[in-house]
């Protein structure tokens, strides 16, 4: 199944709200083609049909057995709170083989925010990277709140990645904010963290029974290292520069990158975190669809289930 618009083309669309809607509509179209369905509520019991009940909830199997109309009653869960965490550190500004990672992250999180508000749940935003600047939008569920959140998100993305703070601190703050109620936490980051503090914090959030999804964003050039000839590499988060022959370091680099990706995947699997490795040349609709489908397959206590929505039907 093919789905999606090239991210670089999508980035040239109008406002972030329009981009978000295009992504969501594309993902939902792909979901229906894949025959994946879900619901934000859980079946509870039957009741006899009465005028005004929705026909789509009639249990036709029960009617066939008893020759009477019964309607499935559903237990609506309390409003879900979703925290979006954007890694806006300097390394996220890299875009060698596609649009910058921070721009891709902004598109993905905007689409998720749009979807969450459409489901009448609450969504908030926390961006990290520069220790001197904190960007926090408290979770709310109103339509005008979506406009405000997307405005803030667009401003962060437009400013570009800066600073060297990992998402770990932002995640710790969310743990404090959500200590009395379980939440869905979606993180968009390249997970470049020398101490692996972010991985450890994500595992702790999951241990506290929060629902955690990670969009691990990697630029195609970061994974393939397609450079040739004498090249100067500059760190985006320090003043360090290195002039090297790529052919002399390629094997070592690729081995280290493969080990890093394997470590992230293993750590998240061990912690029960919903983990997605995302190449930033992949259509954003595909990324959102993968996230929705993964959540629809997960059962209660494993990142899915009745109080872990974003399972649109």
Sequence-ordered SSE layout with sheet pairings:
Layout: H1 7-10, H2 16-33, E1 41-48, H3 60-66, E2 70-76, E3 81-87, H4 101-118, E4 122-128, E5 135-140, H5 143-159, H6 168-177, E6 184-189, H7 197-207, E7 211-218, H8 220-224, E8 231-234, E9 241-244, H9 246-271, E10 274-279, H10 284-297
Parallel strand pairs: 3-4, 3-6, 6-7, 7-10
Antiparallel strand pairs: 1-2, 4-5, 8-9
Helix pairs in contact: 2-4, 2-10, 4-5, 4-10, 6-7, 7-9
> Please, what is the oligomeric state?
single chain
C-alpha Rg (nearest Å): 21 Å
**Largest sheet: number of strands, sense, barrel closure:** 6 strands, mixed
Helix content: 40-55%
Can you tell me the overall shape? globular
CATH superfamily of the largest domain: von Willebrand factor, type A domain
The CATH C-level name of the largest domain is Alpha Beta
- Estimate what percentage of residues fall within beta strands: 15-25%
Q: What is the terminal-to-terminal distance?
A: 19 Å
Structural class: alpha/beta
> Please, how many helices?
10
Mean pLDDT: 84
CATH topology annotation of the largest domain: Rossmann fold
Number of domains: 2
Please state the second-level CATH architecture of the largest domain: 3-Layer(aba) Sandwich
* SSE order: HHEHEEHEEHHEHEHEEHEH
Number of strands: 10
Strand order of the largest sheet: 5-4-3-6-7-10
Low-confidence stretches: 35-44
